[in-house]
Amino acid sequence: MSGPSSSLTPDTAAKAAFAAGDFEAAAQLYSSLLERRSAVEQRHLLLCNRAAALMKMGRYEDAANDARDAIQDAPEGFVKAHYRLACALRGAGDNAGAQAACDDALQIRPGNDQLKALRESCLSDTLESAAPTAAGGMIDRARQAQQANEGGAPAARGGMLQRARAKKEGIPGEPVLVAAPAAPESTDPAAPARNGMLERARAKKQET
C-alpha cells in the first residue's frame, strides 16, 4: 500500500495512514512526532494514537506500555489513555488487568458508556475462562470417587469368595466342626467283682 502523501503534515499523514489500514506506517509517523521537542504538550495524544496502531498489529505489550506512559503525561481527567490500556491488556489476555484499568477510568468518568461496555466484556471473558476450570475440577473428583468405588467392590467380593472356599475345604484358620470323642470305658474297681458274681449265678442255674 502506498505511503501517505508528502504534502501532508506528519500528524495528518499518520492519521491518514491509520485510516487507510497502513498501521505500521502510522506507528512510525507517530514515533517520529514523539521525537520532536515541539510535541511535548501533545505527547499523551501521540502515545495514545501510536498505541492504537500497535494494537492493530497485535503488539499488545508495546501498546500497553504506550498507554501507561500516556497516563503519566496526560492532564487530569484524560480517560482515553486508560481506555487504550484496558484494550491493550484485554488483547494480551489480561482480562483482570483490563477490568482494573476500566475501573480507574470510571472513577474519572463514571458515566462513560464505552468504558462500561468494555468492563462488562472483560468481566464476561473472565467468567467464561473460569467456568471450564471449575467444571473440570468437579469432573475429576467424580471420576476419582467412581474409581474408588469400583476398586473396593471387587476386593469385597474377593474376600467373600475366599472365606467360602476356606470353609468348604477346611483351610487352617477357619472354624471347622470336630466330632465329639467317644465315651471313655468305665474305670470302676467294683465292676470285675460284679461281673464275676453274675457269671457264677448263670453257671449254677444251668446245672439245675
Main attributes of the structure:
208 residues; mainly alpha; Serine Threonine Protein Phosphatase 5, Tetratricopeptide repeat
Characterise this structure.
The protein has helices spanning 10-19, 23-34, 43-56, 60-73, 80-91, 95-108, 113-169, 191-207. It is an all-alpha fold and 208 residues long. The protein has a domain at 11-127: Tetratricopeptide repeat domain (Serine Threonine Protein Phosphatase 5, Tetratricopeptide repeat, Alpha Horseshoe). α2 packs antiparallel against α3 (43-56).
- The CATH homologous superfamily name of the domain at 11-127 equals Tetratricopeptide repeat domain
Q: Rounded to an integer, what's the Rg over CA atoms?
A: 50 Å
Give the helices and strands as they follow along the chain: HHHHHHHH
Q: Runs with pLDDT <50, length 5+?
A: 173-180
Distance between the termini: 158 Å
Specify the number of helices.
8
How would you characterize the largest beta sheet? none
Q: What CATH architecture of the domain at 11-127 do you see?
A: Alpha Horseshoe
Structural class: mainly alpha
Secondary structure: helix percent: over 70%
Number of strands: 0
Question: Which secondary structure elements does this structure contain, and how are they paired or packed?
Answer:
Blueprint: H1 10-19, H2 23-34, H3 43-56, H4 60-73, H5 80-91, H6 95-108, H7 113-169, H8 191-207
In short:
This protein is mainly alpha-helical and 208 residues long. It is built from 8 helices and no strands.
